[in-house]
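Collaborator request, handled under Task 6.
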Amino acid sequence: MTPRELLARTVPPFGGWLALAALALPGGSPLRGAAVVLFLAAGPGAALVRVCAPALAAHPAEGPAAGREATFARRSDLLERLMLALFVSVAAVMLVATVLIATHTFSAQRVLLTLTLLTTIAAFCPPLRASPRARTTPTPPEGSAQ
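Structure tokens returned to the collaborator:
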């Protein structure tokens, strides 16, 4: 594992544990709010998208044929992963909050703790393998004459 991969794995859970530690600050503290909002907006999604990264990389972005820039695919894939991390984080927050509300155990600390644990577990998960591309031309069944 390279240092860059290690950093990509450990930053989201570290942000969650930092946000939990920030709860010890006074209620109106801007630092407390910033730590919690930054983690909830990007932490769980970044960890979950990292797990799915090889599957996402197997199908790179396709730009317009005319006038394609050399860096289009790289920038487009980066933007795709950033937006996906943001939306997956928001979905995880909503899902965890809904479950806690349904079980009558909702509190902001529990949501944050649950998402931090989920992010930590996702950081230890190995990345998914990319599935091979599907064939575009169908193969005839065995035994058929052509």
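The cover message to the collaborator said: "The first helix runs from residue 3 to 22. Helices lie at 3-22, 30-51, 53-57, 72-102, 108-124. Please let us know whether this matches your experimental observations."
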